[in-house]
Amino acid sequence: MNPASQILPVPRGPNEMYAEVIQGTGAPVILMHGFPDSTHLYDRLVPHLAGRRLVVRFDFLGWGRSDKPTGYPYTAANQADDLAAVVAAVDAQSGAGQLVLVAHDASGPPAIDWALANPGRVAALVLLNTYYHWTPGLRRPPAIALYSTPGIRAAARALVRRRPDLDRRLYAWQVGGFIRDPQVRAQLVPQLYEQFLPARPAFWRLNDDLLTTVFTRRRRIQELRRFAPRSR
What's the CA gap between 101 and 27, in Å, rounded? Predict the structure, then answer.
């Protein structure tokens, strides 16, 4: 945890989500992770923001240091409710008005859903290597395609359960491919893998939901075209 940050417990029904707040000025910046990530995705970014902006980062339910209820339906729609719970907690603590939402990877759909429902609260929407609805150019990373394609995913999951070594190598190949610096890659990927293991149920359930999410979000294309953050 960043030395200047404060833990902000976020109630989510009978469960609790983990969030951190780094004090600063201006519209709060809310950092959202994708899969297979957690708040640690932003460890190297937060020091550059600390003191300049009020920064909030949190673990979605099922990930990182948030609760991991067994059998919970981890979906993009429920993650939008996770975000709403975090915003409510931030509002209660600091009386925040507008927000800057930063979404990476699988947090794109919940962030965009929340923004469409609350345009007056959004000062800016920052989308990093993410997606929303199905487009001809949309390409799933190979490991995500393996775990999200019906008819293949069950066999793939059974295989990595039996072969932890294969699971680790697949993770290192997929996640490590996004890190250019070999020294950083060698340091970070093993840490990220160990942090990921407890979140595997949420990871697989979100993969189950992935194709449904991108196909159903096509219904909102007109809303996307009309969306514009409302500056105050």
Answer: 10
DSSP 8-state class, residue 125 = E
For 36, 41, 191, 201, the CA distances from 82, given in Å and listed in that order, are: 17, 18, 25, 17
- Supply the pTM of this predicted model: 0.92
Q: What is the pLDDT along the chain (232 residues), one digit of tens a residue?
A: 454 789 999 999 999 999 999 988 888 999 999 998 999 989 989 988 877 788 999 999 999 999 999 999 999 999 999 999 999 999 988 776 899 999 999 999 999 999 999 999 999 999 999 999 998 888 899 999 999 999 999 999 999 999 999 999 999 999 999 899 999 999 999 999 999 999 999 999 999 999 999 999 999 999 999 998 765 5
d(CA 211, CA 173) in angstroms, rounded, equals 23
